[in-house]
Amino acid sequence: MLDFAEARSRMVDRQIAGRGVRDLNVLRAMGTVPREEFVADNVREYAYHDMPLSIGNGQTISQPYVVALMTELARLQPEDRVLDIGTGSGYAAAILAEIVARVFSIERLASLADLARERLAWLGYDNIEVRTGDGSLGWPEEAPFDAIIAAAGGFEVPGALKQQLVEGGRLVMPVGPQVRAQHLVRLVRRSGDNFDEEDFGGVWFVPLIGAQGWSKDERIGGRTRT
Ligand code: SAM
Fold first, then answer.
1. In a domain? residue 142
2. Model pLDDT, residue 220
3. Can you give the residue range of the structural domain that contains 198?
4. Given the CA of residue 55, which atom of ligand 1 is nearest to it?
């Protein structure tokens, strides 16, 4: 029987700290959340491997390092309220919930959202709300947020999300003109419509499908926007 606690600790040392993640809250969260509980039984043994895993419906739980990197880039504080777009398995929401006060997590596929909600409740997370909906429009009723993290790639940062950040708020998401290849960007809202933008290199995420993301047809056709 695989010792998951040991595998998790090794994952943090080698894949996360070993690649330069320094935020102690992120390292602690990655060392706490049981990733094996967020994947199907037949892939549990790979839960701490350095890769994304399928969670059904054509979707994935992201590579642990990518979750840690995006979380660190969001520069989280304990009192923060955070919007997590693309709940998927709920793993990234759990990582966020270990660090901040409240997490609002939105997923377009109801079957994934329902399963994640059940799983997170079973694991005892009472500071995460999961909702089914189009995260490209954010979560206006709960806005503004101190940070927004999107785990699906858009051709641009949706305007709705930019408007749901507090001043000083951080948004981290994959962005690019091709459906399945993006750059990881961080926006910081300085004031009003004034944002700083930084690029953290190439990434490969499933598409953000929605009113301010890709359409279903574009996703299927592997289209490019210029
Ligand atoms: N954070 C997830 C986890 O920890 O398992 C992994 C997310 S997976 C890489 C991306 C997710 O984004 C998929 O579950 C997909 O259905 C979802 N998604 C795509 N477009 C979306 C949208 N407009 N609103 C909400 N979720 C969306």
1. yes
2. 52
3. 61-221
4. 5
Task: Say how many domains are in the chain.
Answer: 1
- Three-state secondary structure of the chain: CCCHHHHHHHHHHHHHHHHCCCCHHHHHHHHHCCHHHHCCHHHHHHCCCCCCEEEECCEEECCHHHHHHHHHHCCCCCCCEEEEECCCCCHHHHHHHCCCCEEEEEECCHHHHHHHHHHHHHCCCCCEEEEECCHHHCCHHHCCEEEEEECCEECCCCHHHHHCEEEEEEEEEEEEEECCEEEEEEEEEEECCEEEEEEEEEECCCECECCCCECHHHHHHCCECC
Task: Determine, yes or no, domain membership for 109.
Answer: yes
Ligand 1 pocket mutation, candidates 30, 36, 59, 117, criterion most atoms within 8 A of CB: 59
**Residues in the chain with pLDDT values less than 50:** 226
Is pTM beyond 0.90? Reply is yes
CATH number for position 137: 3.40.50.150
pLDDT at res. 225: 59
For the Cβ of 151 lying below 6 angstroms from any atom of ligand 1, the answer is yes
53 Cβ inside 6 Å of ligand 1: no
Task: Give per-residue pLDDT as tens, 107-120.
Answer: 999 999 999 999 99
CA-closest residue to ligand 1 atom 17: 86
Residue at 90 is within a domain: yes
Q: Which of 30, 96, 108, 134 to mutate to test the pocket of ligand 1 (most atoms within 8 A of CB)?
A: 108
Considering the domain boundaries, does residue 133 fall inside one? yes
